[in-house]
Amino acid sequence: MRGKRIFILGSTGSIGINTLKVIACFPKDFSVVGLTAYNNVKLLEEQIRYFKPKYVAINKEHIPYFQKKLNAKKFRIFDVENELDSIFKETCVDVVVIATRGSVALKPFLSAIRCGKTVAPANKEALVIAGDIIMAEARRYNANIIPIDSEQSAIFQCLNGSNRCELKKVYLTASGGRLFKTPKEKFDRLSRKEILKHPRWKMGKKITVDSATLMNKGFEVIEARHLFSLNVNQIEVVIHPQAVIHSMVEFIDGSVMAQMGIADMRIPIQYALTYPKRWGSPLKPINFFQLKNLTFLKPDYNKFPSLALAIQVAQEGGTLPSVLNAADEEAVESFLKGEIIFTKIYETVERVVRKHRTIANPSLKEILEADQWAREEAKRIN
């Protein structure tokens, strides 16, 4: 019996690197058939040499380098922005891991689904901006979506084997981010370097900033609504600083199931790759005797208004989630460039969202047009 053949979009980012670590632990059970990156040429080159994929996709300006530097006869190289569709049509791809961040993941996400592949997304933005379309296409093409994002993976695991009519609500846990213990009046006194120090996870800059504002948790509310066919009032955010419980599900009889584990992304990644089975892991389990306490708090929506805004957007739906995501991407980018202060991120996003005239049940074209409008509006405000 052959092993699963994995294609990783964004192999040089933290999720991509951890996915390759998991695969390396099971060389007889997994093979890497495709790797993509955008600009991290050096690391991608190292990954190609080690994992020997059949397909490689990179920013087109770097294609000549790989053709010259490596033996291109052993793999096919593509433009990462325009040529992924043709790869996903190949039968030698079983699972597509989407480890790229941002709305750029939407097109390859849809392409993989329409080719009937199993998709393992760590990216939440695609589901945020076009969740209704993605889930409808997944049903149409009989494609499986097995989430890697730790909170969504936890819910997926807790619901596995359960009757959905027995579900009452889900609890999305959040560590609280970098600013959990910081008074709001001090937010703008912190440097970008200080804000980028997440207390639990080592992540990319954009998602770390979103964790600090709790916008990331708001995105997860929208994501969970689509993944698990929930109403927004069935989703509750809980601050859990220890990050031991990754999310919980409450059933109609009052029972609550929680998925617990150490804070290591290799656990949900491995589960997504091995599903529906569980395999042994080299990672150390929780030592319950070292746990001093597990605490749960309600979010402070006044301190973190981005979360409240995202929940309102989730309730309205339509083109508004696309606008929320696009405005946030532009505002966070401006902050990371030193063009705006931290608290201006929310102010910019909120202004763009309030100005938008929502289209209900939008087409993909209308979603992308809303995305572009929001970016231009955010740039104008910044």
Mean pLDDT: 93
Distance between the termini: 56 Å
Main pleated-sheet profile: 6 strands, parallel
Q: What is the string of SSEs from the N terminus onward?
A: EHEHEHEHEHEHHEHHHEEEHHHHH
Strand line-up in the sheet with most strands: 4-3-2-1-5-6
Question: Your description of this structure?
Answer:
The structure is a single chain. A 6-stranded parallel sheet has the order 4-3-2-1-5-6, sandwiched between helices. Strands 8-7-9-10 form a 4-stranded mixed sheet, with helices on one face. The longest helix has 18 residues, at 364-381. The chain has helices at 14-25, 41-51, 63-69, 84-88, 106-114, 125-140, 150-159, 192-195, 205-213, 215-227, 266-274, 305-316, 320-336, 344-355, 364-381; strands at residues 4-9, 30-36, 55-58, 76-79, 95-98, 118-121, 167-174, 235-239, 245-251, 256-260. The chain is of the alpha/beta class and 382 residues long. The protein has 15 helices and 10 strands. The chain has 2 domains: 4-148, Rossmann fold; 152-264 and 286-381, RNA polymerase sigma factor, region 2, helix turn helix motif (Rna Polymerase Sigma Factor, Chain: A).
SSE blueprint and pairings:
Blueprint: E1 4-9, H1 14-25, E2 30-36, H2 41-51, E3 55-58, H3 63-69, E4 76-79, H4 84-88, E5 95-98, H5 106-114, E6 118-121, H6 125-140, H7 150-159, E7 167-174, H8 192-195, H9 205-213, H10 215-227, E8 235-239, E9 245-251, E10 256-260, H11 266-274, H12 305-316, H13 320-336, H14 344-355, H15 364-381
Parallel strand pairs: 1-2, 1-5, 2-3, 3-4, 5-6, 7-8
Antiparallel strand pairs: 7-9, 9-10
Helix pairs in contact: 5-6, 6-10, 6-13, 9-13, 10-12, 12-14, 13-14, 13-15, 14-15
